[in-house]
């Protein structure tokens, strides 16, 4: 496959994941229940696919700029993860949001992966 088609492929995958995520959210709303854990991963895959479609041409090169974007993105994501942990600890500790362990893990993994890719996009636009 030609490398020029990769951003388009990621964009199409992002649209498919967006449709699947929307479907799962609509079903959860119609059932008046919490979304199934797979919904969080579908939303994460949507963010990853759209981010990859934007980042692929820029991060394909292994230059200093791409390396700096990756490093700073991971650095900022670490602090975002700490904030996520503090907020979830507060919400669960005060019984504001009743979540079991698997829900918390799914939410944390989804937020962490999404934060890494979103921070890469922001840094790629900035630098």
TrEMBL record:
Q: Which UniProt keywords apply?
A: Membrane, Transmembrane, Transmembrane helix
Q: Which residues cross the membrane?
A: 12-31, 37-55, 75-92, 104-123
The reply to whether Transmembrane figures as a keyword in the UniProt entry is: yes
What is the name of the protein in this document?
Answer: Permease
